[in-house]
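Hi, does anyone understand the following?
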Amino acid sequence: MKIATIIGSTRRGGNTEELAQMVTADIPTTIIKLSELTLHPFTDLRHTKEGFPSALDDYDQIVQAFMENDLLIFATPLYWYGMSSLMKTMFDRLSQALRDEHYGPQLKARMPSVEAIVLVVGGDQPKLKALPLIQQFHFAFDFLQMKPLSSYIIGEANQPGEIKQDYLALQQAQALNKALKNKV
């Protein structure tokens, strides 16, 4: 099983990234930090004659992650009760990628075999207030015809390093890490 972790945080070494590292400890994984990529905003031109223009950015790395991995771990901080803008841009651009003549058909064919896990970290009652975001991910994966969301963890933290104080999230991360090690 090949795994990629897509980190939607803009904070290097923050709580979201730390939780992702706990989940994937001692497991080979490709790390994609969206903050280190150039991803242009989505312009919806799917109903125009011209269609989507080439974006000329790093989005191909995202497509490669979907194409080459069996499991994708989406890790995002809870920003304004939703995913980070980086993560949202990545999902918005899937509309374009799925219609791209070069890899759209292969990407569509690949989606049903891709499993997903979601990690969310927030500071304002996230175990309650992040639930709509988990549902949004579920609906996105369903629309993409991916495997159903297999697992998620919602951690509570604000200041850097606070995730270590969320014992429930730590236990869930350890259990998920163990389960993933049995699959790899």
The chain is about 40% helix and 15% strand.
